[in-house]
Amino acid sequence: MLLSVFVLAGCNQSKTTETAPAAASTYFPAPAAGVQTGGVQVVPITTPQGKFNVWTKRFGNNPKIKVLLLNGGPGATHEYFECLESFLPQEGIEFIYYDQLGCGNSDNPKDTALWSLPRYVEEVEQVRQALHLNKDNFYLLGHSWGGILAAEYAFKYQQHLKGLIISNMMMSCPEYGKYAQDVLAKQMKPEVLAEIRQMEAQKDFANPRYMGLLEPNFYAQHLCRIVPNPEPVVRSLGKMNQSLYVTMQGPSEFGVAGKLRAWDRVKDLPQLAIPVLAIGGKYDTMDPAHMARIATQVQHGTALICPNGSHMSLYDDQAVYMAGLIKFLKARP
Question: Does the annotation mark 116 as catalytic?
Fold first, then answer.
């Protein structure tokens, strides 16, 4: 069944070479001398507005596969990635939790000038350097907003990457908005959509009725189809940095109205020469056809469209998502 949704694209695909899962003694090596922190490393970063600290935590050890995770939102936390702990360790795959500036355990400065895509790209590069990640082991996985950040990082710094995973994100915010308006909105009951539109026109986003309509009629269909949501999702989204979210995304997942509204990198995708996995869900907030096309536009692309998944395919189509992700990560020696 997996093969029917796993689409290979691009030229000169290398023969798959899977590495054997690591033993516990090598995946969780004996502690070195000194105080142990469970893999936590706080990384100091420099920005035009000053110096701050961001939080990272390494899980496992694999010198050839190190996956740095970029959470969505913008403004959520690393915590909804905790489901990876049920899948990647048994395959010997190392992954690294990372709360971006303004998120979770990292510093949260109250300066909205810091909420910008170019600055976040430079932050990721500083984190890469601090964690000693390189082209022989560094995979970058960005989910949702993290997919925008991961792609933008790759356009500038792909020489440092072994591979890129763009999870549940289109490469054009205008096309994302158009899909929300032309496709997803039309799937809602007309009376529900009319009320949502009225509150949006009045900018009445703080009205409890607004989220009261979006949650059952939009989020439960397209954001995460497991209701109530899994606990790590609830915990992560419950810590959302609203300043960061509204500045970059806008007040709702129902289209983009913030700084990212004009972001479009579709025409630049052929520049990416590293292996790229584009993941999407049939019921996603994003257009699954667009996400599948990403793999055909980069030089070495693979598409994984989860047939039962939404924006949180890593939960609501978990078996397909994880099998496809693991296959991609273990395909290169």
Answer: no
